[in-house]
User: Fold these one by one.
Assistant:
Number 1:
Amino acid sequence: MSSCKIGDDGAVYVAQFLLINVTLADLDISFNKFDDM
């Protein structure tokens, strides 16, 4: 494995991690809106 490949895998992992966090944040906002209704 070259260091380049490992670096790319790390970037993909970080991107997926951030995407999941953003999705969870959106779900929290949606649930909060339902609570307000």
Number 2:
Amino acid sequence: MEIIIAEPIGYCYGVERALNITYEALKSKSDNIYTLGPIIILTFFLMTSGSSLR
């Protein structure tokens, strides 16, 4: 089976935007940053599911 990887590969716009907002918040003078949930849901899902994914 041949696997073709599209160019360019990377995060979708929503994930990229969420990360950019987070990085900008980290650069601010605020000591604490709070979110109402995980910044990237898929990452949270993969971390909590672990090897149970098949």
